[in-house]
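Final report, Chapter 2: Outcomes

The project's central promise was a pipeline that accepts a single protein chain and returns its three-dimensional structure in a standardized token representation, suitable for archiving and comparison. That pipeline is now operational. To close this chapter, we reproduce one record exactly as it appears in the project archive, with the input sequence first and the structure output second.
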Amino acid sequence: MKKSEELRRTINDLKTEVENLQAAEQYDDAAAKAKELEEAINQYNAAKAIEKVQGLDVTNNPLEPENKNTAVTANLKNRIFNKLVLGRPLTEEETAAYNTAGTPGLVEASPEKGGYVVPEEQMNTVYEYRRQMVSLKPYCNITPVTSLSGRMPAMGTETGVLTEFDELNEIKQSDFDFEQKTYNVKTYGDIIPVSNQLLADNDVNIMSIIGRRFTRKAVNTENASILSLLKALSATTITDYKGIVKAIFKTLDPTIGLSAKIFTNQTGIDYLAELDDAQKRPLLTPDLANPQQLLLRGHQIVSLPDSLLTVEGQIPFFVGSMSDAVAFYDRKGVEVAVSTEAGFTRYVTYIRAIERYDVKMLDKDAVVLLQIANA
């Protein structure tokens, strides 16, 4: 195992420790552990630099990989996908790679049936763009599905206790009913015009061209779907931030409150940022593991644009565990298809990108909606 990989694991472990200490309000210990985290990050960066130099020969050229076939196959997959989508013939080498064991899974459908599934190499571009945006999907309970509709078992509320019994006596049986959550996957998409001059190169990364626009619209659509469920919750009016703290420690189940997060908009984060405690210190504290992330009493705050989350005359706060509250049924993968005829007069090719998903409420008691009057 590379040194950088070992250090990456260490960094993840230290980050978890820092977050746990902050949640327990052990700020001195968290600060000490954060220094260890910072040192581990510096060691990781140094290790990566050394490994990069070790991968070059004396002429500063990359050394030949030990397994050439692996690198070539990755490049061929990208080229094969582009040619199939654009309707171009494959070479003998590309055909042989396409017929290699495991490769046929690259393509799941024909354009007439919805397009081609984007391979993992190009999906990484979409994932990278997603990380640059505030997406609620990662906070939900993501459940991959393979059909357009169906039922999923979900655990209902359980308040029973174990039964005391004497030795040799039969244990009393109790019934347990699983809830059935029905999902109906919907299709969402976008059509992007792309210059034919760009697509003339078979090696062009199609998803790098359309990925940013598609991802932005996809995240906005997913966020709107999730928020539509949360906005249906009964709102509780509070007078100040103490109502948020009370919801975490008293209203929510203790197991939910322990890991609860606070979801609000730009107005909400601005309201909290202006508050001080009794010692005139800012109420919000930075996460020592990620200084750009703000915390309220050790609980992470997720801020969405006002354009996406707005309540007339109120500042909304969704407090709780999104993963316990919302199920995101994801028919995994992005599919693309093309049309050259529609853009004939503009000398462009229209690329359609679609994704399929559904969202359902799992546990409405896992998140509470709080509102403060917006003065």
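Archive annotation: Residues 66-72, 103-113 have pLDDT under 50 and may be disordered.
This record, like all others produced under the grant, will remain available to the consortium after the project formally closes.
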